[in-house]
Amino acid sequence: MSALIAIIGLLIYIGFFAGVIWLIIIRPQKKREKAILNMQSQIKVGESILLNNGLYGKVVEIINDLFIVEMGLNKSVRVPVKKSHVAGVQAPNMTVVQETVIDKIIDDSADQEYDDED
User: Fold this and answer.
1) Coil, strand, or helix at residue 101?
2) d(CA 35, CA 27)
3) Which residues pair with 79 in a beta bridge?
4) Which residues pair with residue 59 across a beta bridge?
5) For 46, left (φ over 0), alpha (ψ -120 to 50), or beta?
6) Is 8 exposed, middle or buried (0-12, 13-18, 19+ CB in 10 A)?
7) Rounded distance, CA 12 to CA 4, Å?
8) Contact 50/40 with Cβ under 8 angstroms?
9) pLDDT tens digit sequence for 6-63
10) Hey, which bits of 6-85 come out as E strands?
11) Coil, strand or helix: which one is 67?
12) What are 60-73's pLDDT values in tens digits?
């Protein structure tokens, strides 16, 4: 009788931890996968996309599970991409940074040389 109670207790213990793992790991991962699949299926022609490898492109055609994507500034480069390789719908940030870190270092070192001459 006590062995049966111990086995039942062990099964409840294992079931509890399996439930916790499901709530913490498996359920959120399935939600993320569902959201990504939903986003990938709602992409339309003309939208800018970000691929998993970090490249940006603009969708020009959709064929079955492929996007035909224009890459870069040259509009004649068209690449077929599987829907599963799209990371998001996002346009590239093409703004130019006014001052780079290297320029700032060069300016600071030039200022120090003039201070040393005084």
Assistant:
1) helix
2) 12
3) 69
4) 69
5) left
6) exposed
7) 12
8) no
9) 899 999 999 999 999 989 988 999 999 999 999 999 999 999 999 999 899 999 999 9
10) 48-51, 56-63, 66-71, 78-82
11) strand
12) 999 999 999 998 77
d(CA 118, CA 110) in angstroms, rounded, equals: 13
**Where is 89: in which H helix or E strand?**
strand 86-89
CB 59 within 8 A of CB 67: yes
Q: Which two tokens stand for residue 61?
A: 């055609």
Q: Give whole-number Cα distances, 107 to 90, 97, 113, 116, 118, in Å.
A: 35, 16, 10, 15, 18
Q: What are 67's strand-pairing partners? A: 62, 81
Query: Within a 10 A sphere around the Cβ of 51, how many other Cβ atoms?
Result: 18
The pairs formed by 23-29 with CB atoms below 8 angstroms and a separation of 24 or more are none
